[in-house]
Specification:
7-stranded antiparallel β-sheet; 357 residues; 5-stranded antiparallel β-sheet; 28 strands; mainly beta
């Protein structure tokens, strides 16, 4: 069971957006209400900032932020945060090398001690899961952290370790839809990914096969997207070269017990992530000399590309709150990329627009 540390941010009244704010992670709980984590120029560290909007990004105000630095090259593993997720208007988490929770819509934040960095976190409206390492990769004798899965009820202060779900490294995947969830962790020998699913909110778990794994071509599971009920999409990727990578989509309608190949995506770009907005609308992000959002509206059978000519800034946090409304982060504050922007779509990803904060 985890407990709160002493660090807590005092309640802050809404304030103007700080100068030179740089977005790093976004989470909307409805097409109107959203939260944005990032960093800004300030005279006293940490310069982490959280913004909130109540009108779909048309206007933003500054609210309270976790008492931790936003992750940079120098602070990525020094009690920093880089990711944000809200389960509802009140309950949210900022995470990275440290974990912070809010239960009142970012009016205050409290640090949660899970005894290690959080490499992945996802939630339904009822349950939140976190993949936690036993140490930070920057620490001595910690090249390969041992991973475990922690579970908590949304709104609760208590976390509990899920028995038997373990792995190694710094990459992990967690997809959640209602009572259904999928978790992928890497083994110590870098073989096929270890994949589990639950259909009862995390009470019981079942081991699943890694259908993506093709060691002769260096292809493995690179993304999971919950698409409603027991439907899940698997992004398989590997064999990269010259700004391209083999990418394909597999689909399961029985929670991952069996999967079927749906299609191969265009080779352009290295796979970054996958999202679903229902059982038919699927999105894959990739990066090379540009940033690409591949979109399918027929369950992955055919694809169209939305290309951002940004020099390869990359995309993260692609999420859909409704089938029409989605968000993504282009670039990152720490990367020095020409583009570092919040993107929004209100037409199911057919077009994306820059949201000014």
């Amino acid at each position: 069971m985890a407990f709160f540390g002493l660090a807590q941010v005092a309640e802050a009244a809404a304030a103007p957006v700080p100068a030179k704010f740089e977005p790093g992670s976004v989470s909307f709980v409805s097409p109107s209400l959203g939260y944005l984590l990032g960093t800004s120029h300030c005279s006293h560290a940490p310069c982490t900032a959280v913004l909130t909007t109540a009108n779909g990004g048309k206007a933003w105000t500054k609210t309270a932020a976790p008492g931790a630095s936003f992750a940079t090259t120098a602070t990525r593993y020094v009690a920093s945060v880089s990711q944000l997720l809200f389960a509802n208007a009140s309950d949210g988490w900022a995470y990275g090398d440290s974990l912070w929770a809010t239960y009142n819509g970012a009016k205050t934040w409290q640090q949660v001690d899970l005894r290690g960095p959080v490499f992945a976190l996802n939630s339904s409206k009822d349950v939140v899961y976190a993949v936690v390492g036993n140490c930070s990769p920057s620490g001595a004798k910690c090249a390969t952290p041992a991973l475990r899965l922690e579970r908590s009820s949304v709104g609760s202060h208590s976390w509990h370790t899920v028995p038997g779900l373990t792995g190694y490294g710094t990459s992990a995947l967690v997809a959640v839809n209602g009572e259904n969830a999928w978790v992928s962790l890497s083994p110590l020998d870098h073989g096929a990914a270890k994949l589990w699913s639950t259909t009862d909110g995390g009470t019981t778990w079942h081991s699943l096969p890694d259908s993506c794994y093709q060691p002769s071509q260096a292809i493995d599971l690179a993304g999971l997207a919950a698409a409603g009920g027991s439907t899940v999409y698997e992004l398989c990727a590997g064999d990269p070269g010259a700004g391209s990578e083999g990418k394909s989509i597999r689909m399961s309608t029985n929670g991952g017990s069996t999967t079927r190949m749906v299609s191969h995506l265009p080779l352009g770009g290295l796979a970054q992530g996958i999202a679903a907005a229902g059982t038919q609308d699927v999105y894959v992000t990739a990066v090379s000399g540009a940033s690409d959002i591949y979109r399918s509206v027929n369950g992955g059978r055919t694809w169209a590309a939305f290309i951002l000519d940004d020099g390869g800034a990359g995309l993260s946090d692609i999420r859909f709150t409704t089938p029409s409304f989605g968000t993504a982060i282009e670039g990152q504050p720490v990367d020095g990329a020409a583009a570092n922007r919040l993107l929004l779509t209100d037409n199911g990803g057919a077009t994306w627009s820059v949201v000014k904060s």
